[in-house]
């Protein structure tokens, strides 16, 4: 008996993905990756792409995908490359502040415990 293919045949239904409900579904992909080569400023291109995102029911899922997979280019979830990079930087800084605060609290507790035990 021949082994079945590890690839699903095209006749099987594709499982649901959040992008199935995206407003941008079927739009030209280049629209969401403004390069500024068309003579129109990139900011203007980004603003136009973001008009789709503003009414999209899966905007949060799109942004989550872009941040999780570190999408480096384009407009995702209504945010440009630089805006997402700023979000990631702020999240890293906040995590570092939290780590330092927890370390300081742990050291203070250890010092208090050592003083109480003495």
Keywords, separated by commas or semicolons:
mainly alpha; 118 residues; elongated
Q: List segments where confidence is low: pLDDT < 50 over at least 5 consecutive residues.
A: none
Give the % helix: 40-55%
The chain-level structural class is: mainly alpha
> In one word, what is the shape?
elongated
Instruction: State which percent range the strand residues make up.
Output: under 5%
State the separation between the terminal residues, measured CA to CA.
Answer: 77 Å
- Whole-number count of domains: 1
Number of helices: 3
H-E string: HHH
Q: Taking all residues together, what is the mean pLDDT? A: 88
CA radius of gyration: 23 Å
Main β sheet profile? none
How does this structure look, described?
By secondary structure, the chain is mainly alpha-helical. It has one domain. The protein has helices spanning 42-53, 59-68, 81-117. The chain starts with 41 loop residues before the first helix and ends with a helix.
């Amino acid at each position: 008996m021949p082994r079945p293919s590890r690839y699903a045949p095209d006749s099987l239904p594709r499982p649901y993905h959040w992008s199935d409900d995206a407003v941008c579904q079927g739009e030209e992909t280049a629209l969401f990756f403004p390069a500024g080569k068309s003579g129109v400023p990139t900011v203007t291109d980004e603003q136009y792409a973001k008009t789709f995102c503003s009414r999209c029911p899966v905007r949060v899922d799109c942004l989550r995908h872009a941040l999780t997979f570190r999408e480096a280019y384009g407009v995702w979830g209504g945010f440009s490359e630089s805006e997402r990079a700023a979000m990631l930087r702020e999240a890293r800084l906040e995590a570092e502040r939290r780590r330092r605060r927890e370390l300081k609290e742990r050291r203070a507790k250890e010092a208090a415990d050592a003083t109480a035990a003495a």
